[in-house]
Write a structure and sequence with these properties.
By secondary structure, this protein is of the alpha/beta class. The protein is 53% helix and 14% strand.
Length: 276
């Protein structure tokens, strides 16, 4: 899957506009902030996420209004690397983590993911979400989780670009019931026609000589979210983000897309309907 051209994200766009409004060349802005010029460039092209302290420094150099500074701090905070343990997610409510991920998606122009164990969150049906979450949540908390996932999915109706790779093994992981899975596969077929979504399926018949240990999602070239059984990690180190970029490119070469992907999905849907 080739990477489509994209507009810069909100954080880097605002930083670049502030410097332009201040009539400062990159070299001079770097000197006043005490940073290197390449660092300023990485902030403005989305290749590096500034810390909140770096945002404050740049806003002071550029004379940014308080409301603009606060927005930049909010964006930088949402993209800050770290690890959130599953117990912490549950204690805050599952909706909390969904909202944080949603903010990162809103601040990105290109979202790429690889999911070898389950259907990508933006492409899950409510019944699939409910069945998947029922082993840890119940009642109002479960329904809040389902609703927050639906809220996040509205981003598919924007002009942002998405590249999603799902393994056939993930689609054969029988969540809930045959009826839920058949409906989920039909939903994926419908979603694959979206002009801003490139959905790739890796068939189980295709040998891939590299283990797939976990799901991950890449936001532009700045951040990666990795989910495990016990924690969710937000990674912003440029070298680590670049490594996941290479991994996504590697898995992409094994995926079928368009009509070939829809043929795999239709076949699996028929198999689930036969089970029902």
């Amino acid at each position: 899957m080739s990477q489509p051209a994209r507009r810069p994200d909100e954080l880097s766009t605002i930083l670049r506009q502030l410097r332009s409004d201040a009539d400062l060349p990159g070299m001079e802005a770097a000197r006043r902030a005490g940073y290197s010029q390449p660092k300023i460039s990485r902030f403005e092209t989305g290749r590096q996420v500034p810390t909140t302290e770096e945002v404050r420094t740049l806003c002071q150099v550029y004379g940014a209004p308080p409301e603009v500074r606060d927005r930049l701090l909010e964006l930088a905070t949402d993209l800050t690397g770290g690890t959130v343990r599953s117990r912490a997610v549950l204690s805050h409510g599952a909706r909390y983590m969904q909202q944080r991920v949603g903010k990162i998606e809103q601040a990105s122009e290109l979202v790429r993911s690889f999911t070898p164990t389950l259907v990508d969150g933006l492409l899950q049906t409510p019944d699939y979400v409910r069945a998947m979450g029922s082993h840890r949540l119940a009642g109002e908390e479960l329904e809040s989780f389902v609703a927050s996932r639906a809220d996040r999915q509205q981003i598919l109706d924007t002009d942002r670009q998405f590249q999603k790779i799902i393994t056939e093994g993930a689609l054969r992981w029988h969540v809930g019931s045959p009826q839920i899975m058949a409906a989920q596969l039909e939903h994926l077929i419908k979603a694959s026609h979206r002009p801003n979504l490139r959905l790739g399926i890796i068939p189980w018949t295709r040998p891939v000589h590299s283990p797939a240990l976990h799901c991950f999602t890449i936001f532009d070239d700045r951040a990666v979210i990795v989910g495990t059984e016990t924690a969710t990690a937000i990674i912003t180190d440029p070298a680590d983000v670049a490594d996941y970029d290479r991994r996504h490119t590697f898995y992409s070469q094994y995926a079928v897309v368009s009509d070939a992907a829809r043929a795999v999905l239709a076949k699996l849907a028929d198999e689930y309907r036969a089970l029902a």
